[in-house]
Amino acid sequence: MQKKDLKVLVIVPAHNEEKSIGATLEEIKEKAPFVDIIVVNDGSTDATAEIAQRHRVKVLNLPINLGIGGAVQTGFKYAKLKSYDIAIQIDADGQHDPSYIGSLIKPLVEGTADIVIGSRYLDKDPIEAPLIRHMGIKYFSWLTSIIIGYKITDCTSGYRALNSRAIEYFSNNYPVDFPDAEALIMAHKAGLKIVEVPVKFRKRSAGKSSLRSLRLLYYPLKETLAILKLITKKEDH
Amino acid sequence: MSHALQLATLTGIAILLYVLYLYRKGKLKEDLTIMWILISVAIILLSAWTDLLLVINWIVGASRISELVLAGFVAFLLIISIYYSASLSELAEQNKKLAQEIAILKALIDEDRPNNLNEKDGRSHES
């Protein structure tokens, strides 16, 4: 199937991102004019939804804040409902450069993958992260690689593309809080093939990371527990 | 019967009546009603029939009846807490599904409305 024949949906989960959402949406439109865009407004208390609508993209307004996993899954459910061939998740904060959309969907179009992750560690010049976060990414990528049997360098990257098989699976099964390593292991157990492509991440243009302060301590505990649960569960095929 | 045991019996009866009242009003589901009826009956039996308490105490080997009652009470509270944690997790999952359905349905309704901002997106592939 050719790229121009495909229905591609970019899912932009957003919680209180009024400062960056407008620029992010305009950049996606400019650099990937062939995609549809949907903003999943995750219970924002600021003008995120209004700004997104002003930029003439569809908005799914969640009545309560579900967290990143719940918000992204809403986008997958919408993609499934509307029979999209490919769904791409892009953060609203401007960290993900839409120029990479083409390279992200290439393995999906060629049929060599079901899920493609934009990895900042495959890039020659990876972005500098704080030491604790860097160690966390390395630890979970190592753990994920061991479990799924092939190397994943950036399991916490939220810049991902999915084909219709993966959309179908994730619209029914997706972690709520931190959908990183857990989602990849779930996908692998369901028989989905994951590949990574190099991308360069930019610094956040505004807003706050979902991983900060106490959540940074809670995150590895919750994620490790969720992975242990997945390992002990029966195959999902 | 000591005053403390009399008080316990009365408490058990009060809990039983309150549970039945809540159930009749439709404020308590069947499974939870049965659980609380069993608990209140256990309180009434153990406090009104002290020999039963003595037999359990002898079987368990506690040095005092008060220790036995306290340990039983703590164990009961822990089990109830775990049960409610599980119920909360299930409710959170259901809540998430409902919120997602609402968001998608609202967007679909908006798509059907004329002059909607979302409709102006000329690049839409929607059928």
Termini distance of chain B?
A: 78 Å
Global structural class of chain A = alpha/beta
Helix proportion of chain B: over 70%
Quaternary organisation of the protein chains: heterodimer
Number of domains of chain B: 2
Distance between the termini of chain A: 26 Å
Percentage of helical residues of chain A? 40-55%
Number of domains of chain A: 1
Number of strands of chain B: 0
Whole-number average pLDDT of chain A? 88
- Low-pLDDT parts of chain B are 117-127
How would the global form of chain B be characterised?
elongated
- CATH level-3 fold name of chain A: Spore Coat Polysaccharide Biosynthesis Protein SpsA, Chain A
What is the alpha-carbon Rg of chain A in Å? 17 Å
Topology, pairings included?
The complex is a heterodimer of chains A (237) and B (127).
Chain A: E1 8-14, H1 21-31, E2 36-42, H2 48-54, E3 58-62, H3 68-81, E4 86-89, H4 101-110, E5 115-119, H5 131-148, E6 160-163, H6 164-172, H7 181-189, E7 194-198, H8 214-232
Parallel strand pairs in A: 1-2, 1-4, 2-3, 5-7
Antiparallel strand pairs in A: 4-6, 5-6
Helix pairs in contact in A: 3-6, 5-7, 5-8, 7-8
Chain B: H1 3-24, H2 30-48, H3 50-60, H4 65-112
Key structural traits:
heterodimer, A: 237 residues, alpha/beta, Spore Coat Polysaccharide Biosynthesis Protein SpsA, Chain A, 7 strands, 41% helix, B: 127 residues, mainly alpha, 2 domains, 79% helix, 0% strand, disordered C terminus
Question: What's the short story on this structure?
Answer:
Chain A is α/β, with parallel strands linked by helices. Chain A is built from eight helices and seven strands, in the order βαβαβαβαβαβααβα.
Structure description:
The complex is a heterodimer of chains A (237) and B (127). By secondary structure, chain A is of the alpha/beta class. Chain A has one domain (3-232): Spore Coat Polysaccharide Biosynthesis Protein SpsA, Chain A (Alpha-Beta Complex). Helix content of chain A is 41%, strand content 16%. Chain A has helices at 21-31, 48-54, 68-81, 101-110, 131-148, 164-172, 181-189, 214-232, and strands spanning 8-14, 36-42, 58-62, 86-89, 115-119, 160-163, 194-198. Chain A has a seven-stranded mixed β-sheet with strand order 3-2-1-4-6-5-7, with helices on both faces. The longest helix of chain A has 19 residues, at 214-232. Mean pLDDT of chain B is 84; it is low at 117-127. The relative contact order of chain B is 0.06. The termini of chain B are far apart. Chain B has two domains: 1-48; 64-115. Chain B is an all-alpha fold. Classes of the chains: A alpha/beta (237), B mainly alpha (127). The interface between A and B is medium-sized, with 26 and 21 residues.
